[in-house]
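Technical note accompanying the year-one report. For the benefit of new consortium partners, we illustrate the data format agreed upon in the data management plan: each record pairs a sequence with a structure-token string. No post-processing was applied to the example shown here.
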Amino acid sequence: MKDKIGIGIIGAGFMGMLHARTFAQLPDAHIAAVSDPVLKKPPEIPGLPKPLDYYTDHKSLLERRDVDAVVVATPENLHRDIVVDSASAGKHVLLEKPIALTINDADAIIDAASKHNVKLMMGHLLRFDTRYAQIKAAVEEKTIGKPLVCYARRNAPIQEARRLGGRVEVEDYISVHDIDQAFWYFNDRAVKVSAEIVEGAVMKELGVHDFIWITIRFKNGGLAIIETGWGLTEGMVKWQRPASWGGFGDVCLELIGEKGSLYLDYRPMTLTAVDEEGWKFPDTLHWPLLHGEIVGDVLEEDRYFLRVIRGEKEIITTGEDGKNALEVVLAAKQSYKEGKPIKL
């Protein structure tokens, strides 16, 4: 294996450029190029001496011999073709969640990686968060005995819904985080899903619902309740101005077992500010800046991906994990539309 792994970024939005910046910080990675169909000029990444080479067509990026792996951070409806093309070109893939919007697309993604013998790692960020990982370790060490109930809440400000402009519903984009955590903790198969939604300001403005509650029953009796939304109003959570004091949402998780319970609370993320605009709750965990460099969960995820490529680590966020979360999301959609629980 060469000293530096060449990384291509496909999708130059917020997450794509975040990954580009973190990989640029890692000494054993080299950012080779970026592609995005709407790019007008080369993106500039802090820490790089010159702008990246860029393409409007991802296939041109995949032709480069100095690209060993790609980060796919495009809209989810584009994932299938891009991952299949990347696998066919022999490139390893770090795929941002959700894996896809249909089971057929998810299967095609998984099959392509297997057929061409490339690594496919899902960008399920929370598995690289120290606090969520410690809960997993406690489960494996049987600290709380058999897990019985998982309750997770992840409610974002309305600006997050606005950023996506109604292209997906909240369960596609946000609920998958905590659905994946429930699978990780229970290590079991989901057998029944039910869901209810609430419509408010987000529905009026963007045409997608504001909140969803999803209940998942697992084969061995475990129960997960996933509360997700992106309808917190500006008066509740202020963010984006100034940029260094952006906002976070209302996030917590509880895991109750036969012998004990575990509690995680990100309200706020250990740091709070207030000014004439209101209260500010900046992200101090997922991708905060420390002395001009990104630290936190996304950096650990990208570092882990490099170790997977080098054969030093096994993938802990597989394509099958992505498909499991997608199956629950699709069942939740069917449940609230039909008004009944859905058996898997």
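Partners are asked to follow this layout when depositing records. The radius of gyration is 20 Å.
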